[in-house]
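Let us work through a complete example step by step.
Step 1: write down the sequence.
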Amino acid sequence: MSSGIEREIERLVAPALEAMGYAVVRVKLIAAPRRTLQIMAEPADVRTMGVDDCAAVSRAISALLDVEDPIVGAYDLEVSSPGIDRPLVRAADFERFVGHEARIETRQPLDGRRRFRGRLLGLSDARVRLAVKDDGEAAIPLVEISAAKLVLTDRLIAEAQKEGRI
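Step 2: predict the structure and record it as tokens.
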């Protein structure tokens, strides 16, 4: 789901953020209108990610990127939390949020469609299992997923409140 430069940047920053008590959720380099490096991170203890957390992560990442200089030319650094309706990036995300509703897009059509929406059932044989209305269950290969995101529902909000993330 990510480019070579994005994987390289994640490889550079993840150990430092882990040492600070954070986990990298996603690294994304956006080309237009002005190049922006977006880094989503969250506290490893799943507490709320506040402005002070984003500032601390930004300072640490800036220092590392200044030394390593993996991006040629100017760019803006944007650090944020993944939010409640977060992207699902790693295999573990699809397990962590079992029971919640998600939207998934694939690189290639599967059974004639590229967009799926349904309740996450977990992983099996490197496939995301999704309960899809009217279609029963879909099994989407992880390697075919181009984008995935939780859907903001009352249940997701209630769980985030219970965990103290909002």
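Step 3: interpret the result. The CA atoms of residues 84 and 157 lie 7 Å apart.
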